[in-house]
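Q: Please design a sequence for this.
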């Protein structure tokens, strides 16, 4: 299963993939379709993805089937870690955020999520990071179970603006 680094030319592809995975992961029955569409328009449009791809603090990986069909993606972002992380990891350059990691629903549960996560963790190690962190919706039980299997530990929470609704996410971290 090929995984490649996204380029500026991938903005539309990533927007479409992100929109699909967002609808599948967070649409009804978890949230209303209207709320999900509101989030998509405000956060993962092609123009927004174009800006994110151009940001030197962001890196995207796209996972594809052998025939080049995209089935998932991840976004890592160099940013200030949450205050709940220990000072060792909050030091500049020591931790990186896995801001997004999604697969299309037909591929969930087949091992591709683990491969994509391992790819992100290996990339972070090779880049010199000693920890990764991420936020996950408190009601996303499948993702929480996956992250626990991958060795992530809960360190706190924050509020996330999902469209017009404020939702609570857990902060999780993993030492590399």
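A: Design:
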């Amino acid at each position: 299963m090929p995984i490649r680094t996204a380029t500026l030319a991938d903005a539309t592809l990533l927007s479409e993939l992100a929109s699909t995975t967002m609808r599948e992961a967070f649409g009804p029955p978890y949230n209303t379709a209207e709320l999900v569409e509101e989030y998509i328009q405000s956060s993962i449009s092609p123009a927004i993805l174009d800006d994110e791809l151009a940001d030197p603090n962001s890196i995207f990986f796209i996972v594809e089937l052998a025939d080049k069909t995209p089935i998932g993606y991840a976004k890592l972002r160099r940013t200030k870690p949450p205050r709940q992380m220990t000072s060792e990891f909050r030091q500049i350059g020591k931790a990186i955020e896995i801001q997004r990691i999604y697969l299309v629903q037909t591929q969930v549960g087949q091992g591709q999520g683990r491969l994509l996560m391992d790819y992100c963790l290996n990339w972070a190690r090779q880049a010199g990071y000693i920890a990764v962190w991420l936020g996950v919706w408190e009601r996303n039980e499948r993702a929480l179970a996956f992250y626990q299997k991958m060795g992530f530990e809960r360190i706190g929470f924050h509020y996330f603006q999902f469209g017009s609704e404020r939702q609570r996410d857990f902060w999780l971290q993993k030492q590399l």
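Q: Thanks. Anything notable?
A: The chain is about 35% helix and 30% strand. The chain has one domain: 3-175.
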